[in-house]
Amino acid sequence: MDMKQKNAYNRLTNHYDDVLTGRKWWSWLYMHCLWKTDDNIIAGSVLDMIPDGFEGRILDVPVGTAIFTYDKYRRMPQAEIVGLDYSQEMLDIAAMRFSAEQITNVSLRQGDVGSLPFPDAAFDLVLSMNGFHVFPDKDRAFAETFRVLRGGGLFCGCFYVKGERKPADWFVRKFLDKKGLFRPPHYTREEAIEKLRSLYADNVEIRDARSLLVFKCTKPR
Q1: pLDDT per residue over 128-160, tens digit each?
Q2: Which helix (H) or strand (E) holds 81?
Q3: Mean pLDDT score of the chain, rounded to an integer?
Q4: How far apart are CA 158 and CA 160, in angstroms?
Q5: Between vectors from CA 53 to CA 50 and to CA 59, what angle results, nearest 5°?
Q6: Which Pfam families match (predicted)?
Q7: What fold characterizes domain 3-218?
């Protein structure tokens, strides 16, 4: 992540949760009128892919402020969760949230998804919600998340794909990309599915949510 993108996210941190959850009138309009989606529902559908009784190691990248995940992680006391993000400001908010909720099975680490500081096959599950449209080197991010996932492990999440909704594509090009909040180039739906299948073969499930691609993949053994 370059300095432009880092500075943009630092400025956005105070409003980040409002934007994602639509809990302010302006963020509700942003979500429902521009994107025609509800990130709360999408996040819930992704997290439902993970059973509450999950007992393995999870990598959550980017963990962000944990606005969508903290309640899920509270219901997974037997899981060992590592949350990684490039932004220290995001991590600080997540740390305060986990502390306030007395969630003790999550450790947080600053790092780059393009060079994950973990050995091969270190995790049973990799979660990436709203990450790949932010990552500057998407091919490297896919390679690294694949590398640290064990055979038979689950890779799930969601990210923006272009070409599904013109108003959203326009806003991404004219604002989010230019402000450094998203990082082009972006995949089309077909390109994203092809990329996932190149790694996970036929073990790929796709759910469409307009401009967001929701995915669930199992790594071949």
Answers
A1: 999 999 999 999 999 999 999 999 999 999 999
A2: strand 80-85
A3: 89
A4: 7
A5: 50
A6: Methyltransf_25
A7: Rossmann fold (3.40.50)
